[in-house]
Amino acid sequence: MIYRSRAPFRIGLAGGGTDVSPYSDEYGGAILNATINLFAYTALIPRADSQVIIRDPQRGIELRYEAQDELPIDGTLDLQKGVYNRVIRDYCDAPMGLEMITSMDVSSGSGLGTSSTLVVSILGAFVEMLKLPLGEYDIAHLAYCIEREDLRMAGGKQDQYAATFGGVNFMEFEGEKVIVNPLRIRTDALNELAFNTVLYYTQTSRESARIIENQMKNVSQHAEKPIHAMHQVKQQAFAMKEALLKNDLNKIGEILHVSWLHKKEMAEGITNPMIEDLYETAVRAGASGGKISGAGGGGFMVFYAPNNRRYEVAQALESKGGNVFRYQFSPAGLTRWTLKSTSL
Q: Is the peptide bond before 8 cis (omega within 30 degrees of 0)?
């Protein structure tokens, strides 16, 4: 048997960063994001022996262990091993032999929630294989615990919930409480939003943990300017929700632009000269606004280009050496299934 799963990556449209503690604990956070048809994939194949084999074919990495209660967390495929360790600890009487194969449609550190989405995908395959009684909130919360508690990776909460639930969601964060509000957006509005939104990969990745740690430090030290910026970024999530629900797409670019101006003040490292040059390039070509996707520093950028200017914006950005990704919004979240065959 082969147990498969896939989880979608997300575009953060507004409120990014306000889901990170301690800001969300003290002030409450709000995020609006939407999943797209780019995915993280997992396959689990049970083994009759006691071998645990973890493979990442895209990076040419293969790890082999004897089945044990806890695989070593040593910097190589730690997300995969972290999920295995937690599942064995919480849901299995003894370690099990298996082969785990993971892959992603985008690179790690690209700002689309890659780490969290991969964790959700791996958990989904285990849920399918072990028939675990976990609902959407359970899976998303467990993914968060594995990353933030077990692996001690800095970050927020939105990505785990976006990957699990899928669709366009307005999310609210207050302490340990997370509320996912699915938005019923008209199909023509979603199609137009996808058409006008240019998703551009800068061909650079970044270590988001350092930026997020700076942001967390700013809140802990009650730094006035960064906290004010986070308040303003949060308000744009409410503005984005209203614009989408009212089909007022002309406001999207302005909301993105205001969000970007404030996001840059949240922590050091969010922007840099390359990112500023790309932003100005897109605006000159016809974009009405945009932002970095994720924590900042590199990865994907999102630009809104109305009035059929997406072509000029895409061409101008690609002249800088990166790539524009065509995509559609994906309404489905975590998906899992079983193959009654052992052939890949």
A: no
Q: What is the pLDDT of residues 114-150, one digit of tens each?
A: 999 999 999 999 999 999 999 999 999 999 999 999 9
* SS3 assignment, position 318: helix
* The Cα angle at residue 261 between residues 256 and 267, in degrees rounded to 5: 115
Tokens of 283: 């605006």
Which of the residues 74, 138, 159, 188 is marked catalytic?
159
Place of tokens 């193959």: 339
Backbone angles phi, psi at 229, to 5 degrees: -60, -40
Which pLDDT belongs to residue 211? 83
Q: How many CB atoms lie within 10 A of CB 222?
A: 9
How far is Cα 70 from Cα 79, in angstroms, rounded to an integer? 13
β-partners of residue 11 are 34
Does residue 342 surpass a pLDDT of 60?
Answer: no
C-alpha to C-alpha distance for 255 and 237, rounded to whole angstroms: 9
- Nearest 5 degrees, angle CA 131-CA 135-CA 136? 125
Beta strands in 284-322 (DSSP E): 289-292, 300-304
Name the pairing type of β-strands 289-292 and 51-56. Answer: unpaired
Residue ranges of alpha helices (H) inside the chain are 23-26, 78-91, 114-130, 136-145, 158-165, 187-196, 208-220, 224-245, 252-263, 273-285, 310-318
pTM: 0.94
Domains of the chain, first to last: 2-183 (3.30.230.10), 188-325 (3.30.70.890)
Q: Is 159 a catalytic residue?
A: yes
Side-chain-side CA neighbours of 188 within 13 Å: the count stands at 3
